[in-house]
Amino acid sequence: MLIDAHCHLDFPDFDADREAVLARARAAGVGHFVVPGTTRRRWPEVLALGERDEVSVCLGLHPYFMGDHREGDVEALAAALDRHPEAVAVGECGIDARFDDTLDAQWSLFDAQVRLAKARGLPLVIHCVRANDRLAKRLRQLAPEAGGLIHAFAGSPQQAKAFLDLGFVVGLGGALTHERAKRLQRAVTALPDDGYVLETDSPDMPLAGHQGERNEPARVSEVCRKVAELRGQPPERVAADSTANARRLFGLPQGDKREDDSGVNGSTAD
Ligand SMILES: [Zn+2]
């Protein structure tokens, strides 16, 4: 079984055909989904999805949506995390250095979320664009013990190693399928077997050959094939390793009802 370790299934992009999207994912062998939080207003949608056996959720304040965050949102996040122990991580939080004008506010929001995760022993789900070195340095200072996921990792082998040394894993998705992503592909080749998970970031981050299309969790199977090719390992091995890594990181159960329903013998196969 494959796990999509990062997908925004709560987004309105999926409102018209969410069940069909999930059915296609299951048919492609993707049996579990981790859905991160983005804004306070969207947490209820995320939590509602989390009532499904095959979905795990995170709660956080995403740096891409700085304009949506309000005074008091960090306190609300603390309260929501206390009310919802089913949340498996704090996130999606992080730094998006494309948005220079909000960078100071992004850093204070990030620090606050690292502290919330640290106080609760939860891992972090981190969005990091054009800030890998600065973010690794900040994590070294704040030292969150439960690690986390550097989602949609697109850096160098050295940057991947810096995150792994901090107890994080990197999320591999559509970016590595693009022909020009040579540096990232070298990083993928050099990763240890326990250093990565697979993800789509649906509806964003389309794979090569699917530009301009809505991305969806079924495509984790394509990511898996490409990672296997780059690493010179059988796809079954990449599937087993990435699934074990996601389960370890997020504390996911070894099997769920969905696996039995779909006839995939995941609970005993790994
Ligand atoms: Zn995301």
In words, what does this structure look like?
- It is built from 11 helices and 8 strands.
- The protein is an alpha/beta fold and 270 residues long.
- The model is unreliable at 257-270 (pLDDT under 50).
- 47% of the residues are buried.
- α6 links the parallel β6 (148-151) and β7 (168-172).
- The chain has a single domain, classed as Alpha-Beta Barrel (TIM Barrel).
- Strands 4-5-6-7-8 form a 5-stranded parallel beta sheet. It has a 3-stranded parallel beta sheet with strand order 1-2-3, sandwiched between helices.
- Residues 6, 8, 36, 92, 127, 151, 201 line the site of zinc ion (ZN).
- Please outline the major beta sheet: 5 strands, parallel
Strand order of the largest sheet: 4-5-6-7-8
CATH architecture: Alpha-Beta Barrel
Structural class assignment: alpha/beta
Percentage beta strand: 5-15%
What is the fold named in CATH at topology level? Answer: TIM Barrel
What would CATH call the homologous superfamily?
Metal-dependent hydrolases
Q: What helical percentage do the residues reach?
A: 40-55%
Give the count of helical stretches: 11
Oligomer: single chain
Indicate how many domains the architecture comprises. Answer: 1
Q: Runs with pLDDT <50, length 5+?
A: 257-270
Q: How many angstroms does the end-to-end distance come to?
A: 9 Å
- Number of E strands: 8
Name of the level-1 CATH class: Alpha Beta
What labels describe this entry?
270 residues, alpha/beta, TIM Barrel, 5-stranded parallel β-sheet, 3-stranded parallel β-sheet, 11 helices, 14% strand, binds zinc ion
